[in-house]
Amino acid sequence: xxxxxxxxxxxxxxxxxxxxxxxxxxxxxxxxxxxxxxxxxxxxxxxxxxxxxxxxxxxxxxxxxxxxxxxxxxxxxxxxxxxxxxxxxxxxxxxxxxxxxxxxxxxxxxxxxxxxxxxxxxxxxxxxxxxxxxxxxxxxxxxxxxxxxxxxxxxxxxxxxxxxxxxxxxxxxxxxxxxxxxxxxxxxxxxxxxxxxxxxxxxxxxxxxxxxxxxxxxxxxxxxxxxxxxxxxxxxxxxxxxxxxxxxxxxxxxxxxxxxxxxxxxxxxxxxxxxxxxxxxxxxxxxxxxxxxxxxxx
Length: 298
Known about the structure:
It comes from Armadillidium nasatum. The protein is α/β, with parallel strands linked by helices. It has 11 helices and 7 strands. Helices cover about 45% and strands about 10% of the residues. It is globular, with a radius of gyration of 19 Å.
């Protein structure tokens, strides 16, 4: 019931966009949200879920086929207890063997699902911004939104270089990962974080610098990302009601002059000189998937 309480409180507080996926908890996220939505009027929220990424098992982690895509949507609707979702997205397109399958199979299947009234809009998600650009350039299916992660943060603002293209294409931009998957926190990232050692060290030093100023780097990071104009949706995960309340306070307050000064200082002192500010294709999962696919083609 904890997850249900968080969702209900979020909607009561004015949050109206809910993001989930089969991959999150391998269905547990959709199930929990589905239970919560039973007590919330359908017109009070928009909900997005995804297809194509499912488990941590390499055998079943990614599947962009038409058959699995349709099965996934039907299962998501069942778990959510809904007749339709507002947005259906292809999860992490950069892990596909190539983008041809996305263009020729996954997207046309989603268009059929939209035509059937089981979804309203189609989206694609990727950490790799150029993958989003290529799909938008090649797709004959109308794509309504793109979702990327950690591409407008105190560390990396590469998203701004792609925004004119996305806006020209008429797609909505959704951003997540203001905390850089834990980099921009006092706790620091998990061991699996794919960033290189220089980036991790710079983020740690930035957090320590914020401590000396008695400022929470996480607060600055969230406010910095949320201040980006042209991105109407910033996704921020919350694990508890307390985190929800804290984040609501953060996003509803403007950055002070002191905050802006510290932001400029840490960006200049710790991140401006980094040779690499992202981890595109640095994720070990890419190599694992490549090896798995090569082995299973033999």
